[in-house]
Amino acid sequence: MRTSDGVYLAVVEFGGRGTPVLLLHGLMGRATTWWPAVGWLSAHGRVVGVDARGHGRSQAAGPWSTERMATDAAEVLEQLGGGPAIVVGHSMGGLHALALAASRPDLVQAVVVEDMAVDLTGAPDGALADARAWFGAVPQPFESLAQVRRTFGHPRPEFGDYMAECVEERADGYHLLCRVDNAVAIAAEWTRQHHWDALAAVRAPVLLLAAAEGIVPRGQSEKMIEALRGNRFGPYARLVTLPGTGHLVHASAPDAFRLAVEGFLSTTAALRNPT
């Protein structure tokens, strides 16, 4: 599809019927990283993923702001019709899901946020430069998918599997689909600007899934829940922290991830679909 500013976004249909279930991936990811979860999610509606701009098969064109990328997600839902949607976002996608729910409450009926903060402005100085340097030192092209997995899979193998989904094969080997400079530009906004105001504007039940060893600053998930309690859906805001998990919760603990999400959707079903 084409966005209102002319950028091509790749949309992936995963199956299912009825209520849209929109999947938003993390930084440097793509929609197909959600494959491990789409089988059971299709029981809850029509599951669709979108490659964020600059990722996967979508066009690499800015602006890279949270606001613009949340607007992209809104335009995908408008094209799909049949909403409001259940929106599930990992990391960057979780932030976009919250921004989408805040700016377009008419399009969102429930939100699942997997290991993402609304305030990373306290990130250590030089963290982005370190990330750029690390990725810049990664040898591209990769000779094989096995090399991709070895490069990114320590100490957590699931991250190697995730990144193996985020490359494309060319004549000379495998290349990352997301340019490192674009990813750094996206993350740079997070270190400059918080999004606490988005939480107060959300008008839908929210599940925050926190990793035991994730990226959310200590204590912030609890503060996010308190901020969400300021509207009529506040009693349905839920925080679940999964022990033993890293940033890729849905990959490191797929059964626990499913149990938490389906429990949340079951609990909020009557609220989302009043008779």
From TrEMBL:
Under the heading Gene3D superfamilies, the entry gives: alpha/beta hydrolase (3.40.50.1820)
InterPro entries (UniProt xref): AB_hydrolase_1, AB_hydrolase_fold, Carboxylesterase_BioH
What name does UniProt use for this protein? Alpha/beta fold hydrolase
Q: Which residues form the AB hydrolase-1 domain?
A: 21-257
Q: Which UniProt keywords apply?
A: Hydrolase
What PANTHER family does the annotation carry? Answer: HYDROLASE ALPHA/BETA FOLD FAMILY, PEROXISOMAL MEMBRANE PROTEIN LPX1
Q: What molecular function terms (GO) are annotated for this protein?
A: hydrolase activity
Keyword Hydrolase carried by entry: yes
